Amino acid sequence: MTKFPEGFLWGGAVAAHQFEGGWQADGKGVSIADVMTAGSNEQVRKITNGILPGENYPNHEAIDFYGHYREDVKLFSELGLKCFRTSIAWTRIFPNGDEDEPNEAGLKFYDDLFDELLKYNIEPVITLSHFEMPYHLVTEYGGWRNRKMIDFFVKFADVCFKRYQHKVKYWMTFNEINNQTGLNEWALFTNSGVQVQSDEDAEKVMYQAAHYEAVASALAVQIGHSINPDFQIGCMLAMGPTYPATSAPADVMKAERSMQAGYWLADVQCKGRYPKWLQRYFDRRQFDLDMPLSDLDVLQAGKVDYIGFSYYASHVIKAAEDEPADFMTPTHNLEVPNPALHRSDWGWEIDPVGLRYALNWFSERYDLPLFIVENGLGAFDQVTDEGQIHDDYRIGYLRQHIEQMALAVDVDGVDLMGYTPWGFIDLVSAGTGQMDKRYGLIYVDKNDAGEGTLARGKKDSFDWFHKVIASNGADLS
Ligand code: BG6
């Protein structure tokens, strides 16, 4: 018997820049994803100064969904999807980000895409900014370190909400807005278009950029609700719970700190306020952030309707010998492996129970509906001579996570809206820029060198997930 409510949103998730291609089609501008080269697990992606000759930019073509969307959506309907999560490429709508008028051809592409989805009764679930913004806003304004970004984003959101108000009900503002809290160079750029200079305090820059994004998100929530009160507008957080390495209280406190450092944006977006410990931290560090009281009112008035989150892995942390009593960012510099878990080919710790833990953690703190909008296994796939892909490892991963979801819903009473496995059609990895880090249930013939026919094919996991959806999660065999 199914543990999932009627109308549960089984789906699949992607992001515009990782699968659309068509990077210059119909007036699209250059986005921050367009200046990121291919990398690997060992070699981080380079962020180049504009588009440079001789570099490999995998997002430019990606899997060319832009040119294949009708046949792809048909395939999604064969899979049985109830919903489809993607993002709107900001640069299709406002190529530079600071224009007065939107680009009609870009708006029309998403009109056509949403019509195609609705034709098959697939509900669009839309992220406004998924690791993407016009590159011009970086070069001219410094990205989200600049308050002007709030107006640019709100305008973009307003145009999308108005245009698609009768086609899209489920929205999210910023993808994994909390990724940047780890102060990683890549995450600061993909989240905020921010590049920290050597004489700057990265922490201060991050807190300022994230604050402007939170304000922009809260304004978008208010505007969206005024355009269509039925809109469900969520935040989107990267969730990977941190466990203490031992039962030593110092380790437990360190793990708690790591969670605070990673998830304060959930308080800001769901409760509409900064947590007290962080207010104290801002005072102590004398950051002098641009955070007028009027912003705090906006945050309070623009709380989200639900929490969308990604879940891939958990983490373990150990306190330092001389762990300071003071709070510090980042905290994950003392991560250690979890001996209880296996790792993916890319070293991500596989922890299905951690998903149930995460669902409980969010549910207890925020008492909001939850939506798992990303989960999946990045793995190498082998194509047999008969052209098949027997990805039982991926089926096993998804099955174990869905089993934990079922427990969270049935036993723990978590209000879960849906589940959209990440990259259910192979796409470009955000972290490494690879094609061969595959998450898909649908194979796309293209490799890391950019070679391939772009032909689509069904992996074994395709039929398996079809059965899961058709049985509303009752049949996981
Ligand atoms: C999430 C992102 O961080 O994880 C996606 O929202 C990303 O954009 C996904 O693709 C998986 O990460 P990666 O690095 O394997 O692509």
Summarize the amount of helix as a percent range. 25-40%
Structural classification: alpha/beta
- Write down the Rg: 21 Å
Numbering strands along the chain, what is their spatial order in the largest sheet? Answer: 1-2-3-4-5-7-12-13
**Major sheet characteristics:** 8 strands, parallel, barrel
| Through-space gap between termini | 13 Å
Shape: globular
| Tally of DSSP β-strands | 15
Q: Could you list the spans in which at least 5 consecutive residues all have pLDDT below 50? A: none
Instruction: Tell me the domain tally.
Output: 1
Distinct ligands, ions and cofactors found in the model: 6-O-phosphono-beta-D-glucopyranose
Beta-strand content bin: 5-15%
Question: Do you know the CATH topology?
Answer: TIM Barrel
CATH architecture classification: Alpha-Beta Barrel
Mean pLDDT: 97
Number of helices: 14
Considering the protein shown, what is the CATH homologous superfamily?
Answer: Glycosidases
Quick recap:
With 477 residues, the chain is of the alpha/beta class. 38% of the residues lie in helices and 13% in strands. The two termini are 13 Å apart.
What do these coordinates show?
- There is one protein chain.
- This protein is α/β, with parallel strands linked by helices and 477 residues long.
- The protein has a single domain (9-470), classed as Glycosidases (TIM Barrel, Alpha-Beta Barrel).
- 38% of the residues lie in helices and 13% in strands.
- It contains 14 helices and 15 strands.
- It has helices at 16-19, 65-79, 90-93, 104-119, 135-141, 148-163, 185-192, 202-227, 249-271, 276-285, 293-301, 352-366, 392-410, 460-470, and strands at residues 9-13, 83-87, 123-129, 170-174, 232-239, 242-244, 306-311, 315-317, 335-336, 342-343, 349-350, 370-374, 416-419, 442-444, 456-458.
- The strands form four sheets. Strands 1-2-3-4-5-7-12-13 form an eight-stranded parallel barrel, surrounded by five helices. Strands 6-8-9 form a three-stranded mixed β-sheet, with helices on one face.
- Helix 8 packs across helix 11 (293-301).
- The longest helix has 26 residues, at 202-227.
- Bound molecules: 6-O-phosphono-beta-D-glucopyranose.
- 6-O-phosphono-beta-D-glucopyranose binds next to loops.
